[in-house]
Design goal:
The chain is mainly β and 609 residues long. Among the domains are: 166 residues, Beta Barrel (Elongation Factor Tu (Ef-tu), domain 3), CATH 2.40.30; 128 residues, Pnp Oxidase, Chain A (Roll); 108 residues, Beta Barrel (Thrombin, subunit H). The protein is built from 3 helices and 41 strands. The strands form 7 sheets. The chain has a 16-stranded mixed beta sheet that branches. Strands 26, 27, 28, 29, 30, 31, 32, 33, 34 and 35 form a 10-stranded mixed beta sheet that branches. A hairpin with a 5-residue loop joins strand 4 and strand 5. The chain starts with a strand and ends in a 31-residue tail after the last helix.
Length: 609
C-alpha cells in the first residue's frame, strides 16, 4: 500500500493487480426506493444518478509486498483506499478509454512511477479510473505457496460524487423507442448467449399475502385480481471490455432497477414469446471478468400494469419509474432577529436548487408526525457534524440563538437539475444529541404548541406582562443606551460614555443602585447580536457604571456595546423606574393571605350542659 493525499485527505493506494486469468467481480449499483402494492402495481424512484461500485479480486504477492500490505492496513485505520478499476485500464496511445472518472491513475507496470490525474499520460504504461472507498473487510490471506501469498481483496466505493466513475460519453448509442398505451419505452439492446445457456422461460407470477393467524392448517390470504407477470433470467457471455462498459451505461440510464423497457423474448430464444414490458429485478449489475472477457447475468419481471395505466394511475407520477427525490435541510439560528443559515442536502453531489447552493451532508429525517387535531407536530433530524456548523450554539455557555429546521423536497432530473421544489415541514430544534460525528435533534412544529399546557392569567402582586411587550407600553428603542467598555475582569464589566440610543436625555433617577439589574448587555460580532444578562449594577460614578454579568464574556476594552435596564415587575420599584405605573398589570393591593368567607350555619347538635 502506498500512502498519498487526495484533496488534503490521507489515502492509501492499492497497486496489487489481479492474477492473470483469475476472476474479477464488479458490482454496479444505483439505489432505488421501490414501493409495491398487492395489486401488482409499483413505483420505483432512484435515489441517485451516479453509479456505485464494489470490487473483488485476488492477487499473488511476494512476502515483502504482503508485509507492506499488512503494515499499511494497520496504519490506514479508517482512511480511504484507492483502487484502480482493473478491468477498464487501457494502454495510452494504443487503446481508447471505456470508463472515466474524477480520479485517473497512470502508472508503470512495475509501479516505479505513477501519478493521479497527470497532465499527460506520456511515459506511462497504463491508465485506469481510480475508485475511492474502503475495504468491505480486511484483506485475507487465502493461501501461501513458497514465497508467494494469495491475498483476497473486497472493496466498496465510498467517496464524493466528484470522484464517481462512469462510462465515457457516447459509448452506448441512444435508445430506440417503442410505444405502448401512448407512452414511449426503450428497447433492450443486447442479445444473450442463449445457445450456450438458454434463458429461463417466462413464468407467470403474482402478488399475494398469506399470514398464519393461528395454529390452524390454512393461512389467511389477501389477494387482489391482477395480471400475472412473467419473469426471465438470461446470461451474457463473451462480453468484451467495451461491451461491459455499455452494460454499465445501460444500467445507469435505466436508473438501476427502476426504468421499464421492452424485452424481446424471441431474441432470447423463447419461441412465440413476443415482447414484454419489464424492468430489472437485480439489485446490482454484476459483471464477472476473466481475462479479456466478462459474463453478465440479468433478470427481469414484467410490469403488466404499465402497458396501459389503469384509471386513476399516471405513469411517472403514481406508477412506474418516478423522478429521483432529493431532500433539503435549511438550518437557521435566530439571534434575536438576525438569521444565520446553513443549507444542506442528502443528494449525492450537493445541489443548486431554488436559487440556492446546498452542500452535501449525511442528513435525514424520521418520525415526522402530524395529526389533524394539531396536537402532534414533531420530527427527528440527523446530520453529520462539521466544524463551524450550527450545533456549537448548544454547547455549554454558548446558547445565544433559537434554532430552526426547514425541510424541502424536489424532483431530481436526469440532467442534474431540480424541479417541483417545495417546503414539507418546519420546526424548532431542541438540544442536539451527539453520537460520535452524528448529530440527532428533535424538533417541534408550530402545531405542537396545542399539545402544551395553556398559560393561565395569575392573580399576583407582580406585573402580569413582560418588559417591552405590547401590554407593557414601553418601546425597547427608548430604553436602549449606547456605551463603551472601559474595563473587564471576568464577569465584572465597566461601561462609560453612556448615551441614550434615541438621542434623548437621560431619564430621572438614571444610574441608581441596581438601575440596570435584570437587564442585559448586548454587542455584535460578524453581524450577529449577542447578549449577557446583568445581575446587578453599581451607582454611576464619574460617568461610568460597573455591571456584574451572569457569566464572563469575551469583550475587550474599547468595544461598543448597548445596555438595557431590566424590570422586577413590582409597581413601586420596576414601574416607578420607568414611570410606567399606569400600565402595571398586577394586583399590588391583594392581601398576602387569601380571605375565607364562611356562611354562618346553625348546628343541629345540642349544646353540652
Amino acid at each position: 500500500m502506498i500512502a498519498t493525499t487526495i484533496s488534503g485527505v490521507n489515502c492509501w493506494l492499492l497497486p496489487y493487480e489481479p492474477n492473470v486469468g483469475a476472476e474479477i467481480k464488479v458490482d454496479v449499483s444505483v439505489p432505488v426506493d421501490e414501493h409495491r402494492g398487492l395489486t401488482g402495481r409499483s413505483t420505483r424512484r432512484p435515489t441517485a444518478l451516479l453509479p456505485r461500485y464494489a470490487l473483488s479480486w485476488s492477487s499473488y504477492l511476494e512476502q515483502s509486498d504482503y508485509a507492506a500490505l499488512r503494515a499499511g492496513s494497520l496504519a490506514s485505520q479508517d482512511e480511504p483506499i484507492l483502487v484502480p478499476l482493473w478491468p477498464h485500464l487501457f494502454v495510452p496511445g494504443s487503446e481508447s478509454p471505456t470508463m472515466t472518472g474524477g480520479l485517473m491513475i497512470a502508472f508503470k507496470w512495475d509501479w516505479s512511477a505513477w501519478a493521479i490525474n497527470p497532465s499527460s499520460y506520456t511515459g506511462y504504461d497504463a491508465v485506469a479510473p481510480l475508485l475511492y472507498g474502503r475495504f468491505k473487510q480486511p484483506p485475507r490471506l487465502a493461501s501461501q505457496s513458497g514465497s508467494l501469498v494469495l491475498a483476497q481483496f473486497d472493496f466498496e466505493e465510498d467517496g464524493p460524487a466528484a470522484y464517481a466513475v462512469t462510462p465515457v460519453t457516447g459509448i452506448l448509442a441512444a435508445d430506440t423507442l417503442s410505444a405502448s398505451g401512448g407512452n414511449q419505452f426503450p428497447n433492450f439492446p443486447f442479445l444473450p448467449d442463449w445457445s450456450d445457456t438458454p434463458p429461463q422461460p417466462g413464468i407467470g407470477v403474482y402478488d399475494v399475502e398469506r399470514t398464519a393467524t393461528g395454529p390452524g392448517r390454512m393461512k389467511a390470504t389477501v389477494f387482489y385480481p391482477q395480471t400475472p407477470e412473467q419473469v426471465i433470467t438470461a446470461d451474457f457471455t463473451g462480453v468484451a471490455k467495451i461491451e461491459s462498459a455499455q452494460f454499465i451505461a445501460w444500467w445507469i440510464r435505466r436508473g438501476g432497477a427502476s426504468g421499464a423497457h421492452f424485452v424481446s423474448l424471441e431474441s432470447f430464444g423463447i419461441n412465440s414469446g413476443g415482447t414484454i414490458l419489464a424492468r430489472h429485478t437485480n439489485e446490482t449489475l454484476s459483471i464477472s471478468y476473466t481475462g479479456i472477457q466478462a459474463q453478465v447475468e440479468l433478470s427481469w419481471r414484467e410490469v403488466a400494469a404499465e402497458y396501459a395505466p389503469p384509471s386513476g394511475e399516471t405513469l411517472g407520477a403514481t406508477l412506474g419509474a418516478l423522478p429521483g427525490a432529493a431532500w433539503f435541510f435549511r438550518l437557521d439560528l435566530d439571534y434575536n432577529g438576525a438569521i444565520k443559515s446553513w443549507y444542506l442536502t442528502d443528494w449525492e453531489s450537493g445541489a443548486v436548487a431554488n436559487g440556492q447552493t446546498w452542500n452535501y451532508n449525511a442528513c435525514a429525517f424520521d418520525k415526522l408526525t402530524q395529526s389533524i387535531d394539531l396536537e402532534d407536530d414533531s420530527c427527528s433530524v440527523n446530520f453529520r457534524y462539521f466544524a463551524g456548523g450550527p450545533w456549537d450554539n448548544w454547547l455549554p455557555g454558548n446558547l445565544a440563538a433559537r434554532g430552526f429546521v426547514t425541510i424541502f423536497r424536489a424532483d431530481a432530473n436526469v440532467d442534474g437539475t431540480f424541479s417541483n421544489f417545495h417546503q414539507v415541514w418546519k420546526g424548532e430544534l431542541s438540544t442536539p444529541q451527539m453520537d460520535g460525528p452524528m448529530v440527532k435533534q428533535a424538533a417541534l412544529g408550530a402545531n405542537a404548541l396545542f399539545a402544551r399546557n395553556c398559560p393561565r392569567q395569575l392573580m399576583s402582586t407582580s406585573c402580569g406582562t413582560m418588559l417591552f411587550r405590547a401590554r407593557c407600553g414601553l418601546a425597547l428603542s427608548d430604553w436602549t443606551f449606547n456605551a463603551v467598555i472601559t474595563a473587564v475582569a471576568g464577569n465584572i464589566v465597566t461601561v462609560g460614555t453612556i448615551a441614550r440610543a434615541n438621542s434623548g436625555s437621560l431619564p430621572g433617577g438614571f444610574g441608581g443602585q441596581d438601575w440596570f439589574a435584570l437587564g442585559w448587555l448586548g454587542w455584535v460580532v460578524n453581524g450577529l447580536p449577542y447578549r449577557e444578562g446583568i445581575v446587578s449594577s453599581a451607582v454611576i460614578s464619574g460617568g461610568s457604571i460597573v455591571l456584574t454579568l451572569d457569566r464572563a464574556c469575551s469583550l475587550s476594552v474599547g468595544a461598543a456595546v448597548t445596555v438595557v435596564p431590566g424590570c422586577d415587575r413590582i409597581r413601586t420599584s420596576g414601574c416607578a423606574k420607568f414611570s410606567n405605573q399606569a400600565n402595571f398589570r398586577g394586583f399590588d393591593q391583594m392581601p398576602a393571605v387569601s380571605p375565607n368567607f364562611i356562611i354562618p350555619q346553625q348546628s343541629s347538635n345540642p349544646a353540652k350542659k
